[in-house]
Amino acid sequence: MTSLETLGGFVGLLGLRLAESSEDHVVIRWPVRPQLLQADGTVHRGVFCTVVETAASAAASSWLDGAGRAVPVSMQTDFVADAREGELTATARPIHRGRSQQLWTVEITDAAARLIVRGQVRLQNLPPAGSSPTAGAAPR
Question: In angstroms, how far is CA 81 from the centroid of its own chain?
């Protein structure tokens, strides 16, 4: 299971916490704080993009379960509504998991279960860091 605490300082700066993790989904929660807001009082769109990528990457890496690492190669994010306060939840689910690539969808909702953001991330499966570049990441 991937731990967000091990992903580095940026995740901590945003206040993200891993609520659930399995090979089929990841759930991340975080509070809306003044530091995450734009001048108009809404959560900065870059925060949402970061969370979409973080959730998909954590889920894809969890699925590989040490057999490799997943690196995002493309991302698309749709902003459906604004968020100004409360706790937000990002849920990543697989669309496709193959030998060389994975495709994950991420939905971000507010406390009322209202859709705020929908994102999609394609990730390349790579061998574990430090291994031979010719060794392919083989899912379990």
Answer: 19
With respect to residue 21, please indicate whether it lies within any of the assigned structural domains. Answer: yes
Record the pTM.
Answer: 0.88
Length in residues, the chain: 140
Q: What is the pLDDT of residues 47-58, one digit of tens each?
A: 999 999 999 999
Determine the 3-state secondary structure of 38 from DSSP. Answer: coil
CA distance 133 to 22: 27
CATH number of the domain that 81 lies in? 3.10.129.10
Q: Is residue 16 part of a domain?
A: yes
Burial 15-31 (b: 16+ CB within 10 A, else e): ebebeebebeebbbebe
